[in-house]
Amino acid sequence: MERAAAFPRDIASLPGLFEFADGFMDQANLGEALRYPVSFALEELFTNMVKYNPAGGGEIQVRLSLGESEVGVVLVDPDAPPFDITTDAPTVDVDRPLEERSPGGLGLHLVKRMMDRVEYEHSGRTGTIRLFKRVG
Length: 136
What we know:
The protein has one domain: 2-Layer Sandwich (Heat Shock Protein 90). 32% of the residues lie in helices and 27% in strands. The protein has three helices and five strands. A five-stranded antiparallel beta sheet has the order 1-2-3-5-4, covered by helices on one side. The longest helix is centred in the first third of the chain and has 21 residues, at 32-52. The model has no long low-confidence stretch (mean pLDDT 90).
């Protein structure tokens, strides 16, 4: 099962993104244990694409899929500079007190912790992030 959509590069697109994701998760009969990390990851990554690449061209493409053993989440930014979330995101030391931490990176840290696998690819000016969460 797979659903795909494209959303304008605008924070105002979030309600439509959530509606799209909820529709997929309802159709796939995904429980709360899968809904929360998928929704969180979508919001965090979409928001980062909008915030850190506001002048990017084209809509952000989103594809959700359900296989036998995992849910797949793919976000494609068609006009993006390279930024590998697996290696370029700031390191977050969650054991340090808040007042001693540098700002930034916590959302991506949480996405990487919540998902079972994170992949990144950049080709030309297109950035693609693939996330996978095991079912069951």
